[in-house]
Design goal:
Length: 252
């Protein structure tokens, strides 16, 4: 068990929490990162411990290098890091691009893009055979917005997820000879609290009837894709982003 440590950023709620719980069932020890909601992170850890697993909640903003250091120091305390799920991300209220403040734009890119890069750096330094590691896997959470563009809604968020798609491809090729596979998951409309944080708590209910499968996805369905990409079953898969969108925005 000490050889299967997984860091999940934004692991206290939604897709992150579902990923942590499923990973624990698959034998991973978890670092459950969160930014503000300590109670939610502690609840995820408690559920993992109740099933016989091990988990530690670590507060930290992935856009802050010192916080990233603390997140991965906690992983070192559990054992050998074998995986990172770059799940932490933010959205903002619906707006046109010309209405967005520089503060909003900078925060969006710092968390969604730079934060993922900082965490990937920390994971690479531990997992890459070039650095004496044993290899591992990185899964980056993208979004169907990267393909749809989210016009008049949140183009900034869509652009940040487009950057994640590119990061996944480039990093996969960069690390292919160092024992690290890098893949992505591109969720569509998923029934989580992120819609409320963007000011639209009823977005899932409004959009579900018009989705190809007639419903939103669940966090657990996304988690299954994440864990498959981390598993040995996906040993010949790298540089790929799986669309878990229910048929929405499935073009390459």
């Amino acid at each position: 068990m000490a050889d299967k440590v997984l860091v999940v950023t934004g692991g206290s709620r939604g897709i992150g929490a579902a990923t942590c719980l499923l990973a624990a069932k698959r034998g991973y020890q978890l670092v459950v990162n969160y930014t503000a909601n300590a109670a939610a992170a502690d609840a995820v850890c408690a559920e993992i411990r109740a099933m016989g697993g091990e988990a530690v909640a670590v507060k930290g903003d992935v856009a802050n290098p010192a916080d990233v250091d603390a997140i991965f120091a906690a992983a070192d305390g559990l054992g050998t890091l074998v995986g990172l799920v770059n799940n932490a991300g933010i959205v903002d209220k619906a707006a046109r691009l010309d209405e967005m403040s520089i503060e909003r734009l900078e925060r969006m890119m710092r968390v969604n893009v730079i934060g993922s890069i900082l965490c990937a750096q920390a994971a690479i330094r531990r997992m890459s055979t070039r650095h004496g590691g044993k290899g591992g896997g990185i899964v980056n959470l993208s979004s169907a917005a990267s393909k749809l563009g989210s016009p008049a809604y949140y183009v900034d968020y869509a652009a940040s997820k487009g950057a994640i798609d590119t990061l996944t491809v480039g990093l996969a090729l960069e690390l292919a000879g160092e024992g690290i596979r890098v893949n992505g998951v591109r969720p569509g409309i998923i029934d989580t609290e992120i819609h409320a944080s963007g000011g639209e708590p009823d977005r899932v209910a409004k959009m579900s009837p018009n989705l190809p499968l007639g419903r939103a996805g669940t966090a657990e369905e996304v988690a299954e894709a994440v864990l498959w990409l981390l598993s040995d079953a996906a040993s010949y898969t790298t540089g790929t982003t799986l669309a878990v969108t229910g048929g929405r925005a499935i073009q390459p």
